[in-house]
Amino acid sequence: MKVVLIGANGTLGRAVHTALRERGHEVVTASREGADLSVDITDPESIRAMYDALDERGDAVDAVACAAGSVPWRPLGELTVRDVRGGLEGKAVSQIELVRQGAARLPAHASYTLITGILAREPLLTGSVASLVNGAVEAFVKAAAIELPGRQRINAVSPTVFVESLDAYGDTFAGFDAVPVARAAHAYVKSVEGRRTGEVFRVE
Ligand SMILES: NC(=O)c1ccc[n+]([C@@H]2O[C@H](COP(=O)([O-])OP(=O)(O)OC[C@H]3O[C@@H](n4cnc5c(N)ncnc54)[C@H](OP(=O)(O)O)[C@@H]3O)[C@@H](O)[C@H]2O)c1
Question: By residue range, what is the domain housing residue 61?
Answer without folding.
Answer: 2-203
